[in-house]
Design a protein that fits this description.
Layout (H helix, E strand, L loop, with lengths): L1 H7 L5 H8 L3 H11 L7 H13 L5 H8 L3 H10 L6 H24 L14 H12 L3 E2 L5 E4 L7 H9 L3 E4 L12
Parallel strand pairs: 2-3
Antiparallel strand pairs: 1-2
Length: 186
Amino acid sequence: MLSRLAELYPVETTAHTAYMLQIGVTAVKEKARELGLEKLAKSRWLERAGHISRHFDNRSYAEMAGDLGVSRTTVSRMARKLGLSRSKAKGYAMSSRVRNELVRRERRRAVFGLDPLTRLKVISHRAKVRIRSRLKANGYITGVHRNILYFTEATCRKARLEAKATRLGLSFLPFPEDNTPLSNAI
């Protein structure tokens, strides 16, 4: 029985080992402790540890947790066990990067007319930004003053869309012939 215990305990679950030896789980644990047996690291844990150590420098705990399908706390504990740690500056840079990505994602959702996923206020006037984006897609050009849109001879003008945009505070001018600095920012 002891040889079978030494064979099964490191690689199988304690419950399965107890079932195979036809003794209780507590008895298996006590005998294993007496014999000095320890569990081997599971392959899933090793895979996760490898992923964490590879991506520790350029991904946040939450992003790694999403990749692995575990909680952020689990990733944090595994990183601590692996001896990985971040300096304060790296932690701040990571938080800043994640926050910027979140704001960018929310801004895109607003431009495409989707409901926000978070409570971040990324734009001041959603309808105005949305209609400006649609007009830009139709060939209008945004000026330095973001409330002015320019049209060229090639622009297919949309009267109803322009009227709606005018009500929201946008104005339309023909494209200037001189080299006036223009911006194409949303």
